[in-house]
Amino acid sequence: MGDERMTKVIENPILNSPYEQPDRYYEVGPQGPTGEIREGRRPSESFIPIAVSKKGKKGLDQIEIDFDATGERRERNSLINDLRREVFRWRRGGEYSGVTPISRKLLQHWADPNRDNRVLFCQREAAETAIFLTEVAGRHGYTDWRRRLEPENEAHNSGLPRVALKMATGSGKTVVMAMLIAWQTLNKVQSPRDARFSNRFLVVTPGITIRDRLRVLLPEDPENYYDQRDLIPADLKGGLVHTRIAITNYHAFQLKDAKEIQGVARNTRLLLKGDRTEDAFKETPKAMVSRVLRDLGGSGQQQVVVFNDEAHHCYQDRPLSAAGGGEKLSKEEQSANEEARVWFKGLQAVAKHAGIKQIFDLSATPFYLKGSGYNEGYIFPWTVSDFSLMDAIESGIVKVPRTPVDDDADHDQVTYLRLWDFVGDKLPKKALKDKVKDWIPEPELEGALRSLHRSYQKAFEHWETSLQPHGEPPPVFIVVCPNTTVSKLVYEWIAGQEVVEDDEVVAHKRGNLELLSNVVDGKPLARPRTILIDSRAIESGEGLKKDFKQAAAAEIAAFQAEYRRRNPGADVEKITEEELLREVMNTVGKKGRLGEQVRCVVSVSMLTEGWDANTVTHILGIRAFRSQLLCEQVVGRGLRRRSYAVNNEGFFEPEYANVYGIPFQFIPSDKPTKDPLPPKPVQEVGALEGREHLRISFPKLDGYRVEVPDEEIDLDLDSTPMFEVGPNTVPRWVEMQGVVGAGEHDLGEERTYRPQEVAFALAKRILDTQFNTAEDKRPWLFPKLVRFCREWIEQRVKVDEGYSLGHLMTITKAQAEAAEQIWGAIIRYNDRRVRLRPMLNRFDPVGSTEEVYFHTRKATVPTEKSEVSHVTLDGADGNTWEQLLAAELELNLNVAAYVKNDHLGFSIPYVHGGRTHSYVPDFLVRMHRLDGEDFDRILIVEVSGSQKSPGPTQAKATTARDSWCVAVNNHGGLGRWGYVEMTHPLSFQTRLAEAIQLLYGDKPIIGDPDLLDYDAHVRSAGGA
Hints:
Layout: E1 24-29, E2 32-39, H1 78-91, H2 101-111, H3 121-135, H4 146-157, E3 162-167, H5 173-190, E4 200-205, H6 208-213, H7 225-228, E5 244-249, H8 266-273, H9 285-292, E6 304-309, H10 320-323, H11 331-353, E7 356-363, E8 383-387, H12 389-394, E9 400-407, H13 419-423, H14 443-467, E10 476-481, H15 484-495, E11 496-501, E12 504-510, E13 519-520, E14 523-524, E15 530-534, H16 535-540, H17 546-551, H18 553-566, H19 577-586, E16 600-604, E17 616-621, H20 628-636, E18 656-660, E19 683-686, E20 697-699, E21 701-707, E22 723-725, E23 734-737, E24 744-746, H21 755-771, H22 782-796, E25 797-799, H23 807-810, H24 812-827, E26 835-840, E27 846-848, E28 853-856, E29 859-862, E30 870-873, H25 880-891, E31 895-900, E32 908-912, E33 915-919, E34 923-927, E35 937-943, H26 953-971, E36 976-982, H27 988-1000, H28 1014-1022
Parallel strand pairs: 3-7, 3-8, 4-5, 4-6, 6-7, 9-18, 10-16, 10-17, 15-16, 17-18, 22-25, 35-36
Antiparallel strand pairs: 1-2, 9-23, 11-12, 13-14, 19-28, 20-27, 21-26, 23-24, 29-30, 31-34, 32-33, 34-35
Helix pairs in contact: 1-3, 2-3, 3-5, 9-11, 21-22, 21-24
């Protein structure tokens, strides 16, 4: 890397007082922090300063930042840096020339170094910049920066007067709002005719949580910030009674139905509306503005000052064509654009019907989102001040986020940094029809949960000894999940669950993470340690979904009981479940409040902005983080400091938050980059309306289950492969590091497991999964199974140096694979006939061609006999063999429908080299039904050769024919399936005709006759 100034890891990241302008910063070179401290102020640049992987770069002892990750240069925010220099010159000496006497008095009060309750520098700077622009810029020899802002607001905001103040999460944006409200109001009271000021304020938030929290801006609130933070000199406080503040969430900008039309059927409403474009039964924009501003009073002549909190949600998006390529937006991106549209149009209506003097945008990430029509991460060009995450870290104002930078997993990626890459496609995407019992997390997910819990144990022990005696709440572990289904599975795995039989709770199963389990000694705790939250549903003010209420029923009941205890005589029934859970969520880590003792929050989607727990020490992201903004926003939930006590040097002590699963890079620059070039031609491929008769459905299998007629079992290990415990995707140890500051090492579980313990666990799993069904329990087999497992461990397990059998105890999936292998050795010895059955995926048992939709740049061929519009051809220039086969399928009279297996989700699980793999054959072909048959016959076709990459083809073919087809055909309700390989294009026509006749005749193409369950087979023939 060649930079002589690179040094070892920087131990103390805090260089500056939180109350003074930062005057030192760590130099960040092309490979990350060099360890050198630079004098002066860190220039404002657009990137997120988080350590990235040093794995694969052994021998380097400094952490790296990948500045090329986005493919754009790291660039300075020139407007911010230039304006910052002038504000510094104006501030120097403390005279604040050019402002009103009221403004000067406030500015000097905030800057007073001798006051007890000092204002943080980042808060002062944001307020000073806003005041400078309003009262000083363009006069007294200072540049008129407003001229720089006007064209940007014209281009981006249709002329709305917006100014953005960028402040790192946890640095006190609400305090800045209070400072600016005081400044505007007190000046208006002193000089009612001064058009620069107003005492009418509209505060707009993205959700209910922030709206409720911002009550501290109301002077009449008992906990108002003007008093709490001593923001106003005593002789000026009286003027604050003249302020008028309305706090709302942007949802209030939606036009409401008139009372007369509520409850009227949609068709009746359309009939009444007739041909009119205006909906007479909806309020007008003017009426909406009157409703939103009704608390402000006044004649309406005085314009409003608007504060947009979390302002990155408010933007005017460009049409998709301008965004380049018209690519389909994700649901999340569509939703973000819709929300932004409502917010922005609402402000336009306020400007039109009431008048807006100024809009102050506050956000840690005032950047355009993906899908907005602008480059993702393009900073709002009306941003005028910046106190970045790196500034906040160096001033000690926030915790230092530590991410995994190295481990010993057997690949180049850092597993727990990029967790979604390993587990994302294996987690359920939609709600489950049935309750899932004994869910096994993917190995990497389980490893991440256990590793982070070990780290949490250290934080917990520190709390028990040092903080709990002073009444401090415990540390908090947050988990962010992609949907309700995953969050429920993870929640029950962590916290435990009820055991239900015949609709009755018969027992409680403890959770897998000891300190976070809600079940202790077989009984549920009266006060849950772990809670499940659907923050989006709670925030919107709409009701909770039924499936979420069912998942959180026990949690809701426990908090209702706790509420009764704390509020004797209160009518608990009047408190909705939404209000109760919002109260719990918003009071996590708050002394004496309902959420005080919560240790773990499992959330659906993102925890809401404004969620201000300062006790978070551990964060796990189990979702796709395709947006760097999302990365910073999620991590921001965990960065608020617990302690604001300064040390003898006047600095804060460093605090840390450990973060897994959130892959930071950095955000590109503020330079207006060129619009993206139109992408290369893409072909939209998907299921077509009107072709539903060509639909093909298929089962999704996780594996195969063998039924044995009786318990005469023995063990034959001769043909059993070796089971290796050694390097894999689950690390034994993990190194965590912030961009600066002390690191932490998780060295894994230190306990040693004896072979007999492991044999017992494996035997129990075999007994539970293979024998102990409700109707068939065989406990007498346990001793024999333990003996088999011990033999297998001694003869077939190879433990690499530095590894141990503990892997089979701490990673449930490894234990399950070992048990399957032992079971395979047991059943193969029996010469009695066995029954092969399919193990259908519990989350998603059946797929179909109806769900196909994707874009491709591969060569394609349009279809006639397929519900899916095209066959995509593999290979750089297309695959001639696949094209020839598709033509044959179109012509063959016996073929009713076919589909190329691309983005279809059809795969065949098989074992090769001791590991489970997925085999994805090329085509599914559905036959026309024979007379009298009421089930489908479907042929799986593999095109071998041509541009195919070599692989364990024999294992794939054998499994497809003799395991997959047999198991599915034995099921009796999934149709009749066969498998054929096409090995040469000259024989395609005859080979296809032959395979079709064999399938119609139930010949061995449908599976090894010795393995087929003929009874089920005959039943199926009579009607599946």
